[in-house]
Amino acid sequence: MSELNLNLMGPPGAGKGTQAQLLVERFGIPQISTGDILREAVASGSPLGVQAKAIMDRGDLVPDEVMIPIVEERLSRPDCQPGFILDGFPRTRAQAEALDRMLVRLGREALRVLAFEVPDAELMKRILSRGEGRTDDNEETVTKRLDVYRSETAPVLEHYGWGGVKVDGTGSGAPSAARVLAAVEGS
Ligand code: AMP
Predict the structure, then answer these.
(1) Nearest atom (ligand 1) to Cα of 34
(2) What is the pLDDT of residues 84-95, one digit of tens each?
(3) Which residue among 93, 134, 144, 166 is the active-site one?
(4) How far is CA 47 from its chain centroid?
(5) pTM of the full predicted structure?
(6) How far apart are CA 187 and CA 182, in angstroms?
(7) For 145-171, what is the HEC assignment?
C-alpha cells in the first residue's frame, strides 16, 4: 500500500494527540484532530463553535451529521493524498460507517487502525495533570467522557474487527513512541 491512512483509536488521555504529532514529523502527513477543529471553532466564535461548546463542556459528542461532513471536507484536501492521521474520529459506529463510505467515494486505500490501550486509573490521572487549560479536563467532565468512550466509541473497535494493531499506551514519551512506530510498520 502506498498511502498511510492511519486511524488512532483509544480513550481520552491515551496519548493519541501526542503520538499523532510524532507521526506527523516522521511521515509528513497531516493530523486530523476533530477535537482541535472544534476547539478552533469555539475560539473563533463560529456557528459550529457556538453549537459545539456546551456539548464539549458536558463531555458529550457533537452530532454525527455535524462531524461527518467536516471530516469529508478535510480528507478531500490535497495534503491528505499521501495519507493522514485521524485523531478523535470516528467516535461512533455511524461515523465509522460513514468514513468507510467516504474513503471509497474518495478512492482511498484502506485504513490502518492503531488501538491505544491504557488502564482507566491512569487515564484520569494523566488528564487531570496535563494542564492544557481545556475546560473539559475537570473530573466531572472526564468521568462523562470516559463513559461516552465506553458506550459509543469502544464499539467502533468491534466495527474494525481484527484489523487493528494494539498499542500499549502506558508510560510517556519515548517508550510509547517506539511502540507506535513499530505498530505502524506492522499495520
Ligand atoms: P478530543 O480533543 O478528541 O478529546 O475531543 C474533545 C471533545 O470534542 C469531545 O469530548 C467531544 O465533545 C468533541 N468531539 C471531538 N471529536 C468528535 C467526534 N468525532 N464526534 C463527536 N464529538 C467529537
Answers:
(1) 16
(2) 999 999 999 999
(3) 134
(4) 23
(5) 0.95
(6) 9
(7) HHHHHHHHHHHHHHHCCCCEEEEECCC
